[in-house]
Amino acid sequence: MEDASDDHYILDILDITLTPPLPRLAHQVRWQMDSRLKESVDLTRVTCNVIMKIGPVKILDRNYRLPDLLAGMGAGLSGDPKPPAGPWKQTWNLQIPQTVPVAKHRIRLHARTADRQDFFALDIALNFSRRLHSATTSNAVGSRVFYSPRQHRLRGSS
């Protein structure tokens, strides 16, 4: 998972941890996100453009409101739906649908606020090949799976 946003985006994602680190079809994955809001945002009005590809073939290109996207995966926003600027942490237990094709996926998630400001952007690579998940036996171990080029620049400039 890679942060595809830059410094003008409102949400600065510091860390994302998935448990288990390799999500499986028809199973739950816990998404823990530690981030910082540069300004207050009405999360109920954030729109997410989701593009899903298998190889070069686009299988989904759809817009969702953030609460609807989360609800479609069995989760929801917690805390203040209009949080102030500052630290913002969320934990979601997402249900991976059984109907997702067994394949390697690339998902581009680009979110914008109600007034069309860039909120965040993620590039997510997921591999739902059955052979990779047959040996997975534990859902108890999480893994930091997030890479942010911006964080590396920030660490290097301190």
Which features does this protein show?
mainly beta, four-stranded antiparallel β-sheet, 3 helices, globular
If you had to describe this structure to a student in words, what would you say it looks like?
With 158 residues, the chain is mostly beta strands. Helices cover 11% and strands 44% of the residues. It contains 3 helices and 9 strands; from the N terminus they run βββββαβββαβα. Strand 4 and strand 5 (57-65) form a beta hairpin. The longest helix is centred in the last third of the chain and has 8 residues, at 149-156. The two termini are 24 Å apart.
Write the SSE topology:
Blueprint: E1 2-3, E2 11-19, E3 28-37, E4 47-54, E5 57-65, H1 66-71, E6 86-95, E7 104-112, E8 118-127, H2 130-133, E9 143-144, H3 149-156
Antiparallel strand pairs: 1-8, 2-3, 2-9, 3-6, 4-5, 4-7, 7-8
- Side by side, the strands of the main sheet go 1-8-7-4-5
Strand content: 35-45%
Mean pLDDT: 86
Low-confidence stretches: 133-141, 152-158
For the termini, the CA-CA separation is 24 Å
Secondary-structure content class: mainly beta
Care to give the gist of this entry?
11% of the residues lie in helices and 44% in strands.
